[in-house]
Amino acid sequence: MESARDITAYRKYWAARFGPAPYLPMSRAEMDSLGWDSCDVILVTGDAYVDHPSFGMAIVGRTLEAQGYRVGIIAQPDWHDVEPFKALGRPNLFFGVTAGNMDSMVNRYTSDRRVRSDDAYTPGGAGGRRPDRSVIVYAQRVREAFRDVPVVIGGIEASLRRIAHFDYWSEKVRRSILLDAKADLLVYGNGERQICEIAHRLAAGEPISALDDLRGTAFMRRGMPEGWTEIDSSTVNEGEQRAANRLRPERRDRAHSVIRMPSFEQVASDSVLYAHASRILHTESNPGNARALVQRHGDVDVWLNPPPIPLTTKEMDWVYERPYQRQPHPAYGTAEIPAYKMIRFSISIQRGCFGGCTFCSITEHEGRIIQNRSEDSVIREIEQVRDHVPGFTGVISDLGGPTANMYRIACKSREIESACRRPSCVYPGICPNLDTDHSALIGLYKRARELPGVKKVLIASGVRYDLAIESPAYVKELAQHHVGGYLKIAPEAIAEGPLSKMMKPGVATYDRFKELFDRYSKEAGKEQYLIPYFIAAHPGTTDTDMLELALWLKKNGFRADQVQAFLPSPMATATAMYHSGKNPLHRVTRSSEEVVIPKGLKIRRLHKAFLRYHDANNWPVLREALRRMGRADLIGNAKHQLVPAWQPAGTGAAGEGRRAAAGSKPFRTQHTRPKAARAKPAQSKPALRSPPRPR
Q1: Nearest to 100 by CA among 72, 120, 124
Q2: Of residues 34 and 661, which shows the higher confidence score?
Q3: 3-state SS, residue 462
Q4: What CATH class is the domain 345-614+665-678?
Q5: What are the pLDDT digits (tens) for 69-94?
Q6: Domain residues of the chain, as ranges?
Q7: Please, are residues 82 and 142 in contact by the beta-carbon 8 Å criterion?
Q8: CA separation for the pair 601, 401 (Å, rounded)
């Protein structure tokens, strides 16, 4: 893999003489108090500004500040008028626009497309403080305010919409967000490396149009640059590497090869071509071997440079040890920001995920190569939390990242890693080239829990249990020291149909992890429970699969308080399945594998009802389904039966009518609790999943 410029080694911009700001300013009055006549960069975000390294705008802002730039923040502006976008004046270099830590459509709507009434990233948890498709709206308002200032878009919303993408909320393929936002440049993935280069080159006088050589960016251009070789994506398949080796030497120059993907117009009208394009995008995602991609939109090309080179441990430490206040901006007063409350005592130790789950956006955004902080850096941050964050009671709520247990786990060979094109390192089984040693993570856990003033270090990030069982010593450390009564893990399904489309391990792996977890909990004299998560209506799931899962839940004494239905997020592999009915985990052709797709409100509600088999309001629809499936034998009061034949008064259709009249409740992430656990009032309730990590 090629090297990249160390982001800590740039010569600082002249404005570094002002020093770091207590908080990045959100008003002209704050700028005046800092002695600034202008900002060099202004970040516009859909989240409230929390100066904490779990919030993307804080990381980007503090990273640019450390390069010597004056950075202002416009947080959750009223998009109905252009004036809020003029609040900090004209930036000298560029506007950076993001929807925030979450995609705005996921933030605003449930998986059933109902408007949520709350927003965890807003003071008071109030909903409605950001527009649909926030990046597009904010970027257009910025253009209105200052037509000649470069606009750079980024964050999870822009990252997942960098090419033509299926949009679940409109049920159609939309073009790259670059065109609708009318932005000059799109930064995808974790953006520190790109954003530093952008700032320094603009400050040196280069026009934004010249910044077409940055990895991890997308932009518009017309025509093919001289010296580049264009490859038709239809030739890129399992035999593509062998074919490439037969080409003339100059055609094997990957650094100057670009893959021509089907155009927006083609993928918008042909779902099979869409699935093919999705496969190409995911195949070309390893920074060690990815080539540039190009996709025509009308008379212009959207050009995607290869993914950014992952940050080194030194760079990760530097990013996370900026002078964050670890609190919301004082402008919010005493208003509570739910997302901040959830993560204020948590520590990020890594980025990325090599699991490759098809429904997840982490891989598309952060990549498969794990980026790690040093143990010393993590310990210093814990001490910072202990000594300076108000309200700390001695409990670190999480040491983790996208997953809990991929810290310092990587391919045994850098050469193999750079050449690999597999979508997952752990499916269909653990890759023999993957070093699954958890000793570094165990050592970090032990050192953290032994710090003076730290009573408990909990692990709230999702544990990849198929990886964890490779290290029983890790499971022992986890169960005996880092669980507060409940541990959330995510089997997601138990039937092979959906599991194969999710790229998740079978239930036998869950059983093995549970055996180890229960054994080590018992050895420590602790009564602890696993709380499994499941997804309803995922591609590849049949009614029979959901019935099997419901019977498994009942047999094991689990009752889902709230359930999660599959939400097709832009660019995810499972979304390509949902839209096309094809399986892009293999080569896509007109005759390739068809995937069962549970589409439509009726079937999605049925699959959710199976997960909440114990809720009397779901019994009528379940009884109807069981009879249709020829499983009326499961209707009755016997232990082996799923739902009773009788219906309590005020439930079913009557109960549904009352709920509709009262208004739908906001969607929450699913969690389950075993009956035994619910019968123990002394046990604390499992927390909701943490909000997404920095975007």
Answers
A1: 120
A2: 34
A3: coil
A4: alpha beta
A5: 999 999 999 999 999 999 999 999 99
A6: 1-221, 223-298, 345-614+665-678
A7: no
A8: 33
